[in-house]
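diguanylate cyclase
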Amino acid sequence: MEQLRQVLSELVIERVGFGIFVLDRDLNVLMWNRFMADHSGKPAEQVIGRSIFASFPELPRVWFTRKVESVFQLGSFAFSSWEQRPYLFKFDHDRPITGGVDYMQQDCTFMPVTHERDVGAVCVTISDVTHASMMQRARDEAVAKLQEFADRDGLTGIANRRYFDHRLGDQFSRWQRYGGELSMLLFDLDHFKRINDQLAHLVGDTVLRVMAERVARTVRVQDVFGRFGGEEFALLLPCTPFDDAMVVAEKVRCVIGETPIDVKGARVPVTASVGVATARRDVTSSYEALINESDAALYTAKREGRNRTVGFA
């Protein structure tokens, strides 16, 4: 009966659908099952009795050694998922190459093999989780795209008002905590209603898209450019003092109005009025106050004749 149990045990170890190998304290291989042999291309007789690194020098030596040594020292299980380290061995997988995965994605478990309470070896299992990892990546990408769509204005593709307010709130809280400089531009297109009334809304939509593209090409990576609604837009400028914000505002105003926009055979001249405000310790108590000051400066620019930049004073 004991011999039968041993035969069955060896049969199971050889036939299971995951890798099993055992290491001694010197990281020499004591056992190597068929899964490991089939996927590595190295039979047991070629691996057993040798250091795992002699057979697989590409293994992450420092990480792997620490992982195994911790099991010997603590006598407890250790685990590494594909999300932490996509793979341990560079095994081929049987999934479509369009999945964006080069090698089999692996979960690894490190288990102590004890004898009379002493850890005499470590058993490592390798599970093929390529399918699950590809599904998880696909879900993550889908969620990210949905989130991106939720944060973007449908017409212009830039940030929408909700997302802009969220980023403004974050930057304002950071400015309150750490100091520095924080400025904001609020601008809209002059006499935009005439474009819609005289040339139709489709032309107006094209004007807004082209204007947004022009401005988007001028802003820095850390800036946040968003549509407030209608023909009104905002630009958040972290780490930017008032004088520099005024320079940016003039650059934005000029890039909007430098060239008429061609739409369906018509050349539509476009200009913008810009209001600028900077967060100030003694005055600005909330990010809504920064919006209000930018809006007040924008109103002044319009009242003084449009197509100009005005800073809040």
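thats it. The mean pLDDT is 89. DSSP finds eleven helices and twelve strands in the chain. bye
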